[in-house]
């Protein structure tokens, strides 16, 4: 079980790097701030799961952290992949009573990721609305002010 948890921790390390890239390449301030919030949530779950596991099983070896590179397919897919990887671990821990605190953390984290999916959709709608407004203003200026 510790091997599966370490794999998840290493996956999260790869997600953190990918999320920072999305943060730096955001198309509006709402999205920029949202990716920052997501990065913090991923870092927090990684730290919590790591420390709780070490409380149960003892310290990890110094070279246990070996990040798995994550290839960004789409912004929405990042959140879906994080949820899927979290659910895979959660399901593996399902009948293991000693991991009860970790399971609780993972369940809350999935809830947070679902909230972020919702907030991401709002940020993208905001971007579309701003684009329409800017195009309308530009059209008006071109038509009446030049």
CATH homologous superfamily annotation: Ferritin, core subunit, four-helix bundle
CATH topology: Ferritin
* Number of DSSP helical runs: 4
CATH C-level name: Mainly Alpha
Largest sheet: none
Number of domains: 1
Shape: elongated
Q: Gyration radius, to the nearest Å?
A: 20 Å
Your description of this structure?
It is built from 4 helices and no strands. The longest helix is centred in the C-terminal third of the chain and has 45 residues, at 100-144. The chain has a single domain, classed as Ferritin, core subunit, four-helix bundle (Ferritin, Up-down Bundle). The chain is mainly α and 146 residues long.
Defining traits:
79% helix, mainly alpha, 4 helices, 146 residues
Quick overview:
With 146 residues, the protein is mostly helical.
Topology, please?
Elements: H1 2-24, H2 29-57, H3 75-93, H4 100-144
Helix pairs in contact: 1-2, 1-3, 2-4, 3-4
């Amino acid at each position: 079980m510790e091997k599966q948890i370490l794999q998840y921790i290493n996956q999260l390390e790869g997600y953190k790097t990918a999320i920072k890239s999305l943060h730096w390449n955001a198309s509006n301030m709402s999205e920029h701030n949202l990716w920052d919030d997501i990065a913090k949530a991923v870092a927090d779950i990684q730290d919590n799961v790591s420390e709780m596991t070490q409380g149960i099983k003892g310290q990890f070896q110094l070279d246990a952290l070996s990040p798995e590179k994550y290839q960004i397919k789409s912004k929405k897919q990042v959140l879906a992949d994080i949820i899927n990887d979290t659910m895979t671990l959660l399901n593996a821990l399902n009948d293991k009573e000693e991991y009860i605190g970790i399971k609780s953390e993972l369940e809350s984290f999935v809830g947070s990721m679902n909230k972020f999916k919702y907030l991401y959709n709002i940020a993208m709608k905001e971007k579309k609305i701003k684009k329409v407004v800017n195009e309308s203003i530009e059209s008006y200026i071109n038509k009446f002010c030049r």
